[in-house]
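From the shared-data thread, chain only:
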Amino acid sequence: MNPITLVTNLLFFQPLVNLLLVLYAALGRNFVLAIVALTVLIRLLLYPLMAQQQRAARKMQELQPRLQELQKKYAKDREKLAQEQMKLYKEAGVNPFGGCLPLLIQFPILIAVYQAIIHVLALNPMSVIDLAKLLYRFNGFPALATLLPIQSQFLFWDLGRPERIFLPIGGILIPLPIMTLLVILTTWWSQKVMTPPSTDPQTRMTTQLMNLYMPLFFGWISYNLAVGLSIYFIVTNLISVAQFALVGRDWKGFLLRRFARGRDASAAAAPPPPTSSGSSSPAASVRPRRKTRGAR
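Structure, as tokens:
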């Protein structure tokens, strides 16, 4: 085993296998809920990096007008254009490669999640034996091996196998990839929501192509790999949109506006202060002084 595979197994694969089994036992031996809970935990763990990526994308979007001005000004001098762009990034505190780190971290996690799902849903006796070697053993900790084999059936799907549902129409079996379609739709929706608009025609065209091909790419992966991975994709897309809404909203200003609105409503609903019976209104108490003849 090469060092990269060994490190990946120790940091990602083996912990995810054991965590999946712990969640499976804690959630009533429901493997779908275990996958959903695992996805939520992974997204919470990656939340700081994802928030940093979204803030960097928002700052880059704000710099688009100034970048276009630089492109027009130094259209014939590429070296000077690159220098001015880096200078602008430095002044604005923007790292143009800040969004790459979360993507690089998610890739080995995605592979480890797929391998963990396949290994936990051991489909033959030899796989069960190999899985037992990966389980942690602690004193006082319930033996995870007693949970094997895992119940892999969920409605129409076997979570450890690719989705193969066919609908007979007129004597012809028509494939009905429900999970694959859900992956395509949620991936397209999440990219549509999270991708900032661009005024640059080339960037806009690239974004449109990515919004078209990425959902199809993940749909192809979902159709050819285990259904459990499709559930991971779907929940990841939904959580990504929720995180984008949380990061993108000005919660401080929102809370201050709500507080000010509630304070104004309380002041408007408060009754006027009581007045004593012997006193009169300020307007009535102020009377013009009568002039006397002696004061002329």
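The first helix runs from residue 3 to 26.
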